[in-house]
Specification:
- With 617 residues, the protein is of the alpha+beta class.
- The protein is built from 18 helices and 27 strands.
- The strands form eight sheets. A six-stranded antiparallel sheet has the order 1-2-7-8-10-9. Strands 21-20-22-16-23 form a five-stranded mixed sheet.
- A hairpin with a 6-residue loop joins strand 5 and strand 6 (108-111).
Length: 617
């Protein structure tokens, strides 16, 4: 954590405050605190205490019917909390959390298992007062001991992500009547109450006889709106709505989870999966392949209006997707080399010829948000960056980063610039191959998990070949891909870094030096930068929204000029195709898809059922 800074005011933003109170902690000391029905970061919640339901849900939505979806690859585990295994789709939704996030606010969580969130005004702790009606699927009560057990288990035995995410939380302990208190270590960290609200609660009794550290295909004991009723290992999984779900009438849940059954079918091949959709084998498909979206859905059901294709806009930050360099590899440690390879990727050609012009180039690690560094540094941002001037490239202060662009003459001028950079870095052409001073040729592997990305990677490889570089393209199955990334066993790989509107502790896992040495950590690039480490801590400690924006832009700028990846592209809408048997609320959520608020329309369903049966036959 960052040391205390006298210029940074300690401040925790807890909204819709019911009033300040004087609390006597376990040690007997008095501490002023606030109680609320919601917790938010640098904002005020939209919904007051006593609200009935969120605007983007229909409180009267009918229950019933089945939603069938498909996933690519396979699965071998129902334990979503450990490093080992590939978890089945939907498994994390078996477990309720202390709070639930609203999808029409940037970062606001309302009480779920907890009915009240109590936070010390000095930011040193948060307590969650639990609902005594909260139940696991076997009818047993969710208790403070379950919450404490969950926190301790995730931090010590769970996926490495949790150790980093909860790094600033010292302990969890019983507090007052039916409450759990989390104590923080020194430093300002206003995101921690919201982070802990997202804690999925596990049953201490259940895991007394089940090994938490192992993969399993035995359905675990959860507390959420669905339970597992059928598992065909690696092929399909079926969830059934719990009609006695304890939280079904809570305001944050009203109008959600309307399908009686949810089924996920697994396919190895993307073409087979699309054909299965068009023949009625499953109901809904979110498309991420631009070619298939443009050309792959034409079919009698689409022409007859039985299948709908729709772009559903959203306001989510796009984050960053890119071809990432593993800087643990000797060839990628020189920033000039990384910059040179990025010059060889022709986005304009790719977008026109492969993507049907559907995408926009990503320009920031916080694309599509106010957090992106899209202009020269402001005075406030320069104040953040100035202490690191001698450790940063001058471009951070003098230029706005933009990904390489190919002009009317194509990629040739970019390749010439790339070759100059490579020569500066000590590489030279020998027998038409780029070679190091020691005589080693420049060759590496691009690791992919989806074969449809090969059509993007292979033209990139062709451009690199013109520089004397050999890039082999290798596609592996999802289990092997995950294992190799967890072990940092790759040269270059496709990776996406999703971002929220309130970045914080998760940035340690993305870019922090400690995460670079932790198997399974998200810092697969291998960044080890004291400057970036300090900027992350400044973001975590931001006392207000304006400061958070400036500090995040500073981090964005430093990451961009580090040339740690080849930026890809984004689209500000969900591409969704579905059989027209659904209805959904008139008001969509701003920051999500909102599928959990859809329902099967009883008037449409019979026609679609008949059509799907006909297509299958």
């Amino acid at each position: 954590m960052m040391k205390n800074n006298s210029r940074v005011h300690r401040r925790v933003i807890i909204a819709a405050v019911l009033g300040a109170c004087l609390t006597i902690g376990p040690g007997g000391a008095a501490a002023q605190s606030h109680k609320s029905h919601a917790v938010t970061i640098h904002a005020t919640p939209k919904y007051p205490s006593g609200f009935t339901h969120v605007d983007y849900a229909n409180a009267e939505a009918p229950k019933g019917g089945t939603l069938k979806q498909a996933r690519r690859g396979t699965f071998d585990s129902l334990n979503p909390f450990i490093l080992k295994g590939v978890t089945a789709a939907g498994a994390s939704g078996l477990f309720d959390t202390l709070t639930a996030r609203a999808a029409d606010e940037p970062n606001t969580d309302y009480g779920l298992i907890a009915h009240t969130i109590e936070t010390a005004t000095d930011g040193s702790w948060v307590a969650f007062h639990l609902r005594k009606e909260a139940r696991f699927h076997d009818g047993s009560q969710v208790t403070p001991d379950d919450v404490i057990f969950t926190f301790d288990t995730l931090k010590t035995k769970g996926h490495p992500f949790y150790k980093a995410y909860y790094a600033s939380v010292v302990k969890a302990e019983r507090f007052a009547d039916w409450a759990v208190k989390f104590t923080f270590e020194g430093g300002v960290n206003p995101e921690l109450p919201a982070i802990l609200g997202q804690l999925p609660v596990l049953s201490k009794t259940y895991y007394a006889t089940h090994d938490f550290t192992k993969t399993t295909l035995q359905p675990p004991l959860g507390s959420g709106p669905y339970r597992i009723v059928n598992v065909d290992p690696g092929r399909s999984i079926t969830y059934e709505r719990n009609k006695h779900y304890w939280a079904k009438d809570l305001p944050i849940k009203k109008g959600h989870h309307n399908f009686d059954r949810m089924v996920y079918e697994y396919y190895r091949d993307i073409t087979v999966m699309l054909e299965a959709f068009k023949s009625g084998e499953f109901d809904l498909r979110a498309e991420n392949n631009s070619k298939l979206w443009a050309t792959g859905y034409d079919s009698p059901p689409l022409r007859e209006g039985l299948i709908k294709k729709e772009l559903i806009p959203h306001e989510l930050p796009a984050g960053m997707q890119g071809f990432v360099f593993n800087t643990r590899r000797e060839m990628f440690r020189d920033v000039r080399v990384r910059k040179a390879l990025a010059l060889a990727f022709d986005f304009e050609w790719t977008n026109k010829n492969l993507f049907y012009g559907q995408y926009t180039r990503s320009y920031s690690y916080f694309t599509n948000s106010e957090l992106a560094a899209t202009e020269l540094p402001s005075d406030e941002e320069l104040t953040v960056l100035e202490p690191f001037r001698d450790k940063l490239p001058p471009e951070v202060f003098e230029k706005v980063y933009r990904p390489p662009v190919t002009g009317k003459r194509g990629i040739r001028s970019n390749l010439r610039a790339a070759l100059r950079l490579l020569k500066e870095a000590g590489w030279s052409i020998q027998d038409k191959r780029l070679t190091s001073k020691s005589g080693k040729p420049f060759e590496f592997e691009m690791l992919l998990v989806h074969a449809d990305f090969e059509r993007v990677a292979l033209p990139f490889a062709k451009n690199l070949e013109r520089l004397g570089i050999e890039m082999a393209v290798r596609t592996v199955d999802s289990a092997q891909y995950k294992k190799r990334l967890d072990d940092f066993d790759f040269d270059m790989a496709l990776q996406t870094f999703g971002q929220s509107l309130s970045p914080g502790n998760e940035q340690r896992d993305f870019w922090g030096s400690k995460s670079a040495d932790t198997p399974g950590g998200r810092n697969i690039i291998g960044i080890r930068s004291p400057v970036i480490d300090e900027l992350i801590e400044l973001i975590i400690a931001a006392p207000d929204r304006a400061t958070l924006i400036q500090r995040t832009r500073a981090l964005d700028r430093v990451l961009l000029w580090g040339h740690y990846l080849v930026p890809n592209w984004h689209i500000n809408a969900f591409r969704v195709a579905y059989w027209d048997k659904f209805a959904r609320p008139t008001i969509p959520p701003k920051y999500g898809f909102g599928l959990d608020t859809w329902w099967v329309d009883p008037k449409k369903a019979p026609r679609i059922k008949a059509a799907q049966s006909g297509s299958k036959s």
